[in-house]
Specification:
- This protein has 385 residues and is an alpha/beta fold.
- Helices cover 51% and strands 8% of the residues.
- The chain contains 18 helices and five strands.
- It has helices spanning 16-24, 37-51, 54-59, 75-84, 93-108, 112-117, 126-138, 158-164, 177-190, 198-215, 230-235, 237-248, 285-288, 291-305, 318-330, 342-357, 364-371, 374-383, and strands at residues 4-10, 29-33, 146-152, 169-174, 225-229.
- A five-stranded parallel beta sheet has the order 2-3-1-4-5, sandwiched between helices.
- It is globular.
């Protein structure tokens, strides 16, 4: 591709569509919304099948959702595999045909034009397939300098993509986890098919914090990876848009703030009379999120909040959090990524808090299962989490 690759990552309901649409409104940039999640899943499965230890392969399910890696004995090995992965794995042509169909269906939800072009995906390995996919996106607009996609749940693939595309840039959207859950619950009320397991969202939130913290110190990503605050994006959109343009070495364009020109209805799961970008979404969770959910979010995400601008507002009680997790486990909706075993998952949460409270140096494997990286526990202790 003649233009440079651009990737937007984050959690679902974190405002990634807002960021991607702002970027896509720039005449020098095009960003497709969520077309390639099947490609990332296929790559994940190929990495496990070809590079994981035999016992990890045996226990792994290719149909599993993208993982948060917490508490599972195979979690650290799987996470390391994704972070160190290469895209030069051979691509089975039957798998390629299946990916053409799956990506076509997903892309068509936002762009029927792009969806129809997915029949042109090609490549003998995953690196070629990613290049082919970005070429298809680049073809949506003429004369663009940056072309890429927005995807959710897959931040751990940033190093692989950075090695594959030395000129690529990466933006990860950060949002208060309580606001994310409030948006999720509001969306589920409007459309029950969108209901999902809120505790799984919260675990993926802290996974993103851990990865963002790690990427900030990775020489491979120096000057290439940036975490962007949803709250600043929604309350100071022009300032943030100008910083995005500086990062991409393009001039600011006022059309980046006129999202309704493409028919978009706004950056909220809640009903709102306005259009374009509005700030009312930032603190709405304080009024609408049930107290038991706020308490659970503070318990699950409170330690990692110390590495972000957010802070807990409750003093969570373990027995009340346990009651909410049991309730949420009975109403998981269409998606969850935890183990589904309340004893394992809540036991892991309690051990996380115990490790923070003790000054001892626990076993490395235990730390990684509870915090993903050894350095995260050290950083949290320094912050007084």
């Amino acid at each position: 591709m003649t233009c440079k690759p651009l990737f937007v990552f984050g959690l679902a309901r974190s405002g990634t569509n807002l960021l991607a649409r702002m970027l896509d409104r720039h005449p020098d940039v095009t960003v497709a919304l969520d077309p390639y999640l099947p490609l990332f899943r296929s790559l994940r499965n190929a990495l496990v099948a070809s590079r994981a230890a035999e016992e990890v392969r045996r226990r792994f399910s290719p149909s599993a959702p993208f993982q948060d890696y917490y508490f599972d004995s195979d979690g650290p090995a799987l996470l390391d595999l994704m972070l160190a992965g290469q895209a030069d794995l051979p691509l089975d042509q039957d798998e390629l045909q299946a990916l053409r169909l799956k990506t076509g269906e997903r892309a068509s939800l936002e762009s029927p034009t792009l969806g129809a072009q997915m029949a042109g995906l090609a490549g003998k390995d995953y690196g070629q397939l990613f290049r082919s996919g970005l070429d298809l996106v680049a073809g949506l607009k003429t004369g663009v300098r940056w072309a890429g996609c927005k995807e959710v749940w897959v931040l751990e693939f940033v190093p692989l993509l950075a090695r594959l595309f030395p000129e690529a840039r990466f933006f990860a959207l950060e949002r208060d986890p309580r606001a994310i859950v409030a948006s999720l619950l509001a969306m589920a009320e409007k459309d029950p098919t969108q209901a999902a397991h809120a505790p799984s969202y919260l675990r993926h939130w802290r996974k993103q914090v851990a990865l963002t913290h790690r990427f900030a110190a990775d020489p491979l990503l120096a000057g290439r990876f940036r975490s962007i605050s949803f709250e600043r994006l929604a309350t100071r959109p022009e300032d943030e848009a100008r910083q995005l343009c500086d990062a991409l070495d393009v001039d600011f364009h006022p059309e980046m703030l006129r999202l309704s020109a493409d028919g978009w209805k706004g950056n909220s799961s809640f009903d709102h009379g306005g259009k374009d970008i509005y700030a009312e979404t930032v603190d709405r969770w304080r009024k609408v999120l049930p107290a038991r959910v706020v308490q659970a979010a503070d318990y699950l995400c409170g330690p990692e909040m110390a590495l972000t601008p957010y802070r807990p507002i409750t003093s969570p009680k373990a027995n009340e959090v346990l009651a909410y997790l049991e309730e949420a486990g009975r109403e998981t909706g269409s998606w969850r990524s935890d183990s589904g075993d309340l004893l394992v998952d809540f036991g892991g949460e309690m051990i996380r808090h115990m490790l923070l409270d003790t000054g001892s140096e626990p076993d490395e494997s235990l730390v990684r299962r509870c915090f993903l990286f050894n350095g995260i526990l050290g950083s949290l202790r320094q912050c007084g989490a």
